[in-house]
Amino acid sequence: MDKPVLYIVIPCYNEQEVLPVTSGMFLNKVKSLAEAGKVSEKSRVMFVNDGSKDNTWSIIRTLAQQDEHFVGVCLSRNRGHQNALLAGLMTAKDMADVTISIDCDGQDDINAMDKMVDEYLAGCDVVYGVRSKRETDTWFKRTTAEGFYKVMNALGTNTVYNHADYRLMSKRALEGLAQFHEVNLFLRGLVPLVGYRSSSVYYERAERIAGESHYPLKKMLNFAFDGITSLSVKPIRLITSLGFFISLASFIGILWVLLTKLLGATVSGWASMLCAIFFMGGVQLLCLGVIGEYIGKIYNETKQRPRFIISETTFEQQPKQ
Question: How many angstroms from the chain centroid is the CA of residue 278?
Fold first, then answer.
């Protein structure tokens, strides 16, 4: 049986500080897996430049010139982490038997790749890298991150708890993922929908080796909301339930007002009226905002714009989008 060709797919955005450090780590890992006989010597490390504004792409091209194990893909502009990751996976799909996606910052334990490959060789098509604990995070980040996964699952989005985008996918799983054509990408929720046999590998996450995080609180909240509205209609159903509850409460309130009117016990007052008006106005605006978010996503999907455009690669064969 031929050894599988592995491509490690790494999205990069303004990573000039950390890339010279972590590139050597990824190269050593590919070589060690090949030397152990688990993967083919044709295995590669693929960097995907997501429209970086610094020297990231120049570094990637230099690495590719220095060692054949490095290959690079450059997007025409910044499309975001999920689109860049998808671009790398869809490009590697035609050249590899299996891929492992991982961030460039060196926080994810690359030694977990050994166990991932073992799981793949044992018959798994998808292997999730799952954090065993979050001691390196601040209390606030740990609490919000754990709350994120709980809320996502509560709202009907099928995600793996404490799993980000560190995962192994076989060629068959990638071909299944390619059949999902939505523009609003949330790969953490899409990959479980592909199905096939899967397992999890647990690891401890370290501090970022260099550079700054590209996911501040605001961006993380937007990412979470995009994930929920892209994969679940539960928020719409919650709005329906809320509307029913408020309508029922309003009906009871009307009966109470009529009863007090008939009994002659009415008391005029503006405070209760203003509170009711403000409450109903706020609820209506909130509901319209959630509905508008879904309509906006429908609008983006109907246009069917390309999720990524590749402008340049470090290899001769121009990959298919």
Answer: 36
Q: In 94-158, which ranges are E strands?
A: 98-101, 126-131
Q: Is the dihedral of CA 181, 186, 192, 196 positive or negative?
A: positive
Q: pLDDT class for 307, splitting at 50, 70, 90?
A: confident
Averaged pLDDT score across all residues of the chain:
79
What topology does CATH give the domain 6-215+306-313? Spore Coat Polysaccharide Biosynthesis Protein SpsA; Chain A (3.90.550)
Backbone angles phi, psi at 277, to 5 degrees: -65, -45
Range 163-188 burial, b when 16+ CB lie within 10 A, else e: bbbbbbbbbebbebbeeeeebbbbbb
The pLDDT tens digits of the residues spanning 204-249 come to 877 655 555 555 556 666 666 666 666 666 676 677 777 777 766 7
Q: What does DSSP say about strands 198-203 and 310-313: parallel, antiparallel, or unpaired?
A: unpaired
Take residue 289 and report the two structure tokens written for it: 């905002």
Distances (CA, A) of 184 to 58, 88, 229, 298: 30, 17, 9, 9
Rg (CA), the chain: 25
Give exposure, 64-80, as e/b (b: 16+ Cβ within 10 Å). beeeebbbbbbbeeebb
Work out the number of other CB atoms within 10 angstroms of the CB of residue 190.
20
